[in-house]
């Protein structure tokens, strides 16, 4: 499954890069792209575990930039 | 354009103003009055905290997570270091300027994002569909293929379709960048995302919303910036080692010289600690990490304003280096529509010859026959014609007003025995002869050609002036026709009588030979393999053609070849700005690092190296979005 989410208050390009790297390391993630310019995250992961992975991704994002929130 | 600050940005702005105001009071105060060091420390800590408390907090959180090469952490170390060495005003100012830079970046990015979002504001909100005689206002994705929708003046056309009632002018500017409206009437095709200007039209839809032109374009534009350019990847890699390298250098700078020269002397330590702090302040690669994607984003946005959709920064990069452009002929350089070019009559008036030819051809659906009928502007009375006989591969024999005529190629003329001659012009030649008792009487011929587009020649000229060396046309058409077109518009080469597979082979040959970057331009119909094989595949006339949008790397919304040169110009400008920023940012940082190491650069210069460079790079990057109306 591939889904796109909006990110609010994603404030630095460097952080977007770090988020992407962190999320790509989560097991089950097929691909992930965090786009600083469009403030969007595209996450592709196993259907069965998508919700679980999404939760982990949200955590990873908060770890890099605490202010940044994912709009689901 | 007005830009509204977000809540977060407003808060930041207030903090910056308060902090700056306090510093404006404390700085002269500290200069004029000799204050005890602890009073000064307290005075400068206040604006420092006001400006940077969130940085400190984030840095602390980062330490807990074990991330020490974070810019916020570095900023904290640098400023605390400055406090530690007694440079209180510097510490406060560094933090203040850092925050100014961050705010500026946030606003600049927000602004360009917004203006591009506005640019792409082509998504229709609703469709008015007619069901059981009633008008229903529904979401465009609820309309099925084949339903009838009604569009009033001033409304966006929500779905692709064909006009079944009414006529109107349509503004396609949102898609093509061309502001001249297009007049559409019965059974003309309308494209979703365009704007209905003057009349009420009823349209039978031909696609679902998800498959419509507007959806395809939006999808393309939204995904465009995901495909990264080589420069972007380079910057990403560079940022990864730049920061740690500078930090390690800073640590070494703070420790080794004092250990060697005066391990017990605090003043020596202090000098080197300050120099190390200078290093830390310029250790952030922000100017590069932000400005490079911002430039590409702006360039792609600016291009789409002109009806040029570039599917990713990577293609922007290649497009800027193009030195060979290969064109498809039909539909790309020529209109793909046959038209009468000339009439050569012998022993008969030209209008009469055309009248005979048009009447005889009026029963045929062949494109060449149709072009003759179109050239004949008057009404053709079909009752005058009888006994129409199609002679396969040769032409038509028909009786008109009691006389038998032959209309067709040279072979037909041989068949009827007319004394015909070939034409000095190239193209499709239709000969006309009248049957007489003895041999047929030759009346003349009509020259028919695929018309060359108005701006083909100027587009070629422009590409040449941009330094494109090879301009080659590939066509399945006859060699003579190809040569004539190539000469007329000034191409450097052409290959004729090619099958679609031959085109791929030719492009591969050219790719090998040139070693340079090659663009292929086609209309997206049956040249998808070539579009994919080329370094950059450019499809034109994409309004309504899904195949073109999918297989190409660059999509031109209308079918003007001159847009190719414009695309190259935009790509070059974007790349120039990207490199300007990279070189400028790196040069300034390296110079400050060197000067800092030998003690010439102070904190103030370091702040410029960080925030100043960031702001200049962003301002430069924003220029990418500005595209001249051609």
Overview of this protein structure:
The complex is a heterodimer of chains A (72) and B (630). Chain A has 72 residues and is an alpha+beta fold. Chain A has one domain (2-71): Alpha-Beta Plaits (2-Layer Sandwich), CATH 3.30.70.100. Chain A contains two helices and four strands. Chain A has helices at residues 13-24, 50-64, and strands spanning 2-8, 29-35, 40-45, 69-71. Chain A has a four-stranded antiparallel beta sheet. In chain A, helix 1 runs antiparallel to helix 2. Chain A is globular and about 30 Å long. The mean pLDDT of chain A is 83. In chain B, 46% of the residues are buried. In chain B, the strands form four sheets. Chain B has a seven-stranded mixed beta sheet, with helices on both faces. In chain B, strands 2-1-3-9-4-7 form a six-stranded antiparallel beta sheet, with no helix packed on it. Helix content of chain B is 51%, strand content 18%. Chain B is α+β, with helices and mostly antiparallel strands and 630 residues long. Chain B folds into four domains: 1-119, no CATH class; 127-158 and 160-206, Calcium-transporting ATPase, cytoplasmic transduction domain A, CATH 2.70.150.10; 213-333 and 453-572 and 596-604, Rossmann fold; 336-452, Calcium-transporting ATPase, cytoplasmic domain N, CATH 3.40.1110. The interface between A and B is medium-sized, with 17 and 24 residues.
